Amino acid sequence: EEIDDVLPGNDNVVLNISIKDDILTRAEPSLAFETAVTHLDLFFASDDGTIRKYQRMEINSAPGTPIVVPGLKVSELTNVSKLYTVANSGITENDFKSVETVNDLKGIVETTQYVYITGTDFKSADSDTYIAPQTFLMTGNNTIDNIIQGTDLELNILLTRAVAKVTVNFILKSGAEAYFHSFGKPVPADNNT
Fold first, then answer.
1. Long-range contacts of 159-165 (CB under 8 A, 24+ apart)
2. pLDDT digits (tens, 9 = 90+) for 91-126
3. From CA 23, how far away is CA 50, in angstroms rounded?
4. Cβ distance 55 to 72 under 8 Å?
5. Residue 26 class from Cβ within 10 Å (0-12 exposed, 13-18 middle, 19+ buried)?
6. What is the enclosing helix (H) or strand (E) of 159?
7. Is 44 left (phi over 0), alpha (psi -120 to 50) or beta?
8. pLDDT tens, position by position, 145-165
9. Measured between alpha carbons, how far is 104 from 19 in angstroms, rounded to an integer?
């Protein structure tokens, strides 16, 4: 791209990315993998849920730095009212290109093996292959209501960890037996209810 194409006021889409601050999984907040973003998948949708524009972009800067979406102009965003953002997905760009509606996007399930060791250097027991993911899957969505053709569109993207964190509180009463029954609804100790 020409340098003039990324100067302010030239019909650019500019993203200001931030990470929800209550998602850290480790006690040490300086660990870069907790908030790392390697790439974004951007889905621009209309009111009826149709994906009007999709683009994947690599990220080479830390959250908080404004980023111009390369090659995307505000003039391309006609009949768009929402932006759905997916960060660090393992789903291929070609698979995401086939998403036609917001419902299609919401129906995608991505499973991350070994999410509990993200950011570590664990290797497979039978090879020298690293098995720990280095980033977390994150999502965000924005309402777009200020598109003015010929000017920059600046969007503040708040990304939230897509992985569920579960807190379990055990209360043991005198004389009761505690059981942890797989996952799901706890089984009462006396199995009567």
1. 159/17, 159/18, 159/19, 159/20, 159/37, 159/63, 159/85, 159/87, 160/20, 160/23, 161/20, 161/23, 161/136, 161/137, 162/110, 162/136, 162/137, 162/138, 163/112, 163/115, 163/136, 163/137, 165/25
2. 999 999 999 999 999 999 888 777 777 778 888 788
3. 30
4. yes
5. exposed
6. strand 153-161
7. beta
8. 878 888 899 999 999 887 655
9. 25
Whose CA is closest to 38, among 67, 10, 14? 67
| Beta carbons of 33 and 135 less than 8 angstroms apart | yes
The pLDDT value recorded for residue 48 is 96
Map tokens 């055990």 to a residue: 170
Q: Which residue is associated with the tokens 């569109």?
A: 153
Instruction: Give the side-chain half-sphere CA count within 13 A for 140.
Output: 22
CA dihedral sign, ordered 106, 84, 70, 147: positive
* Distant-in-sequence, close-in-space partners of 164: CB < 8 Å, separation ≥ 6: none
Q: What is the pLDDT of residues 14-43, one digit of tens each?
A: 998 888 765 555 555 556 777 888 999 999
Across 6-124, the runs of DSSP E, i.e. the strands, are 12-19, 39-45, 51-58, 67-73, 82-87
Q: 27-63 in b/e burial notation, b at 16+ Cβ within 10 A? A: eeeeeeebbbbeebbbbbbbeeeebebbbbbebeeeb
